[in-house]
Amino acid sequence: MLDAGSITKLLGYESSSNYLTEPSQAGNAVCSVYRQLRMIPPEKKFRIEGLYVYDTQLSGSERVSQNIALCVATVDHPDVLKDLRQIVWNTGAIPFLLAVSDGAVHVFETFSYEDDASPLISPADVLNLTPADANFQVQEQRPVNQSGKHRQKIDITIRCPNGKSSSLFAFEAKRLRTNGFPIGEYTGKGGMGCFLNDEYAEKMPEAAMVAYFQDKDSAHWKKQLSMKLTVSLKSVSVVSALPVEFKTEHVRNSGNAICLYHVFLDCYPDS
User: Which of 30, 73, 110, 202 is the one with CA 20 to 30 A from 52?
Assistant: First the structure.
């Protein structure tokens, strides 16, 4: 039967230093969240197996911030999934939850909470995976073809190691906040520019930008983005669980075309 251990092994987490199975392995902020999750009473019938984290360097600073990307949990019965989702949501620090229950895998987006929310990935999705699908890997902070301490790194890359083309899709993520994290960082050299200048995903016809905004709302940031662009911003629906998605079509500096998808995630603490 599929369990949390086999899932983390399949994803490559088992051998990754980014996957933390004890609070003591984490930095102060993540450690506090981890301890909060570990205080769940046993009668709740679920347990936290680990947190997958990543580091970001704060703009204009040498400080590195540790962030949580995903919480992995085991649930004794599907009926308590809602309780687990609410507890993870209450932390305000974990965007995704991967819960394993009776051999089924459920993946939820947890920066928002609805009682009847559908999982981003359901048990049916997992059952329909082909052997090639099951060999997909998700990697964060993957270096591009440069050398040195400060070489650029793609935030998230989906890969199929045994396929003819190793990297299949790339994401670049940027924080948006009116005080210190303007839209220019999203559209600029270190954001969309990485794709348009052929620094990232140069052989891919499509890629994605992820904006996690921490104040205002999606309408505000859509307007800000539209004002910066010289191409049209078109609304699309690729993943129904993500409410704000757009796409733009560009010609890179090399002359090749690329379609960029834009996903806005509401990470406002008071939302």
Answer: 202
CB atoms within 10 A of CB 94: 22
Query: Which of these, 166, 229, 151, 250, lies nearest to 203 by C-alpha position?
Result: 166
Q: Which two tokens stand for residue 165?
A: 């083309």
Q: pTM, whole model, 2 decimals? A: 0.49
d(CA 265, CA 205): 23
d(CA 178, CA 224): 11
Q: Which two tokens stand for residue 134?
A: 């099951």
CA distance 254 to 167: 19
Q: Which residues pair with 80 in a beta bridge?
A: none
CA atoms within 13 A on the CB side of 56: 13
Cα(239)–Cα(245) distance, integer angstroms: 8
Tens-digit pLDDT profile for residues 59-87: 555 667 788 988 999 988 877 888 888 88
